[in-house]
Amino acid sequence: MAQAQIGIIGGSGLYNMDALKDVKEVQISTPFGSPSDAVRLGTLEETRVAFLARHGRNHTLLPSELPFRANIYAMKQLGVEYLISASAVGSLKEEVKPLDMVVPDQFIDRTKNRISTFFGAGIVAHISFGDPVCHQLAGILADAIATLNLPDVTLHRGGTYVCMEGPAFSTKAESHLYRSWGATVIGMTNLPEAKLAREAEIAYATLALVTDYDCWHPDHDSVTVEMVIANLQRNATNAQKVIQETVRRLSQNPPLSEAHSALKYAILTRLDQAP
Ligand code: ADE
What we know:
Blueprint: E1 6-10, E2 21-26, E3 39-44, E4 47-53, H1 68-77, E5 82-91, E6 101-103, E7 106-110, H2 135-148, E8 155-157, E9 160-164, H3 172-180, E10 185-187, H4 190-199, E11 203-212, H5 225-252
Parallel strand pairs: 1-4, 1-5, 5-11, 6-8, 7-9, 9-10
Antiparallel strand pairs: 2-3, 3-4, 5-10, 6-11
Helix pairs in contact: 1-4, 2-5
Bound molecules: adenine (ADE).
């Protein structure tokens, strides 16, 4: 039986959800190993949700070390149909300021060292990924941010998230290159998650929390971990409010997403004859 319809993956600075009630921790094992941490199952806005700290609750996993497949597989096993991913990002645009919130609608993959598919080993499938984010879920998330009218927070609907490998931050040349591509924000984790969620037919959207101007801005210091954490701490309560409001809206009217039938035309292998 499905244990949670909505999943939340919390990134740096968002290691739990204070408003989660009746919390039960579950250790999940998957064919891809263990997820980043125990999943916390609980009730938020009278809805069952599954919360996972992406880097572990003590932040012990680098972006390149994350068990992305186990994390998404665990969510699928729990019955998750909608996945909200909260993540710290750097800004690549002047008008996107630290503490702002962005709901991206595109990704550019600059990772080098991640396994971002469940397929292979005899099963060949190619999901459509032209629109990598579920636009209904992203719309609900953005509407939740807009309704809350949070002080000091500007909402940016849409935008391109560059996913880099890390763990070192970008060089200035790279940062300027991404700006020349018209990208909006940069982070280290969301693209593999978005791909795997789509393969798992889970609707996915990102709440990108802006913490810095990366290293391109002439009037701002280059990004440091200290800067990221300080701004995330300022924004963590806001992020939790946004997630709670999103869950409330989503549970009232869960949309049918194209993501929910992503595999319909994706699988090439003749499964009736596969080994
Ligand atoms: N996460 C937060 N800020 C970042 C940046 N500037 N680059 C990559 N990931 C980030």
